[in-house]
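Private note to self, pasted from the team thread so I don't lose it. Backbone tokens:
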């Protein structure tokens, strides 16, 4: 256990150090060659801010895989990460169409599913379903990856939000994997955490650099891998055992991007709008309109995510369907409140 802890801590420190060293260079490079995100109609920031912070994530994570993973386990994982990295890079540089972005993601996901053999084989009692046929298993796993990857991409709307939420999720996945003695999974999670913590110094409001799609897609991919692993393994530690609660815990660790994206998807369908059309209907946009600003909005959503994770602990003894239902109701109610307050405030002013 001592050696295990040592490698995990080393991965965290290595990742942090690499990102912390690279990010100022990226800021200088992006500024010099005008590789910046200019504020537009849908932007929550002002002015021009350098992008490509995700490049730091890429080098940090790849370095940790090479240094601390068993070589036979990093080949397919690294290939998937490289593909998503270049998809995000091309999108930041050229602006890929949604179909091309999705195609790139599917290629990366296929490597994880078919070559790394990581897929969801059971629903573990959710909706009364257990073992899944191979074809359904592959389709559902791909769906989970796409939802998480793009959910992280969608919440990257204000300074520090995706970075902080990603850090919380990575820490929770990594800590649980450590207690379940899943050493390499924990190293992967803490490698992501280290790079995100270094990036947060430069990305918290006022942001000096954005992660771009290069970063948000990469964060989403790593968190997807961690989530699917947890769904399959369940919770099996020396002090707590819930072998069928993996899906519930994975949902709770990613609750903000998952439920906010689902809320918007449902809302747009009911209003007759394209569910994937970009807009300013996210929870962070509502909090900004209420006057909280970037800093307070990010901190509020950090605390919200942590409180939901704490709530999860008390719901673990429940039947998995009841736990997910109650958790979903709490989420949707809380995510609706800022919009309700804003609309009520506007009507009062009128």
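Design output:
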């Amino acid at each position: 256990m001592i050696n295990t802890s040592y490698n995990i801590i080393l991965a965290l420190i290595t990742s942090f150090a690499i990102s912390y060293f690279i990010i100022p260079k990226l800021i200088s490079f992006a500024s010099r060659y005008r590789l910046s995100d200019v504020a537009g109609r849908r932007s929550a920031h002002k002015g021009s801010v350098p992008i490509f912070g995700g490049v730091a994530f890429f080098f940090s994570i790849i370095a940790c895989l090479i240094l601390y993973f068993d070589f036979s386990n990093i080949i397919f994982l690294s290939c998937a990460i490289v593909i998503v990295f270049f998809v995000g890079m091309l999108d930041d540089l050229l602006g890929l169409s949604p179909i091309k972005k999705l195609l790139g993601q599917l290629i990366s996901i296929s490597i994880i599913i078919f070559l790394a053999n990581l897929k969801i084989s059971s629903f573990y009692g959710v909706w009364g379903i257990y073992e899944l046929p191979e074809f359904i298993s592959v389709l559902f796993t791909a769906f989970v990856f796409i939802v998480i990857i793009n959910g992280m991409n969608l919440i990257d709307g204000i300074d520090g939000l995706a970075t902080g939420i990603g850090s919380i999720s990575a820490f929770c996945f990594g800590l649980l994997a450590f207690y379940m003695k899943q050493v390499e999974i924990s190293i992967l999670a803490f490698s992501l955490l280290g790079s995100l913590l270094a990036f947060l110094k430069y990305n918290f409001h006022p942001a000096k650099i954005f992660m771009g799609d290069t970063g948000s897609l990469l964060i989403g991919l790593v968190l997807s891998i961690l989530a699917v692993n947890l769904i399959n393994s369940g919770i099996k530690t020396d002090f707590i055992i819930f072998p069928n609660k993996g899906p519930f815990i994975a949902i709770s660790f990613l609750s903000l991007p998952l439920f906010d994206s689902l809320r918007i998807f449902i809302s747009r369908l009911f209003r007759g709008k394209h569910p994937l059309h970009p807009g300013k209907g996210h929870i962070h946009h509502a909090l900004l309109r209420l006057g909280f600003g970037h800093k307070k909005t990010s901190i509020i959503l950090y605390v919200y995510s942590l409180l939901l994770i704490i709530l999860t602990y008390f719901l673990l003894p429940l039947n998995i369907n009841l736990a997910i239902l109650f958790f979903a109701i709490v989420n949707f109610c809380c995510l609706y409140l800022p919009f309700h307050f804003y609309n009520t405030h506007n009507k009062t002013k009128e």
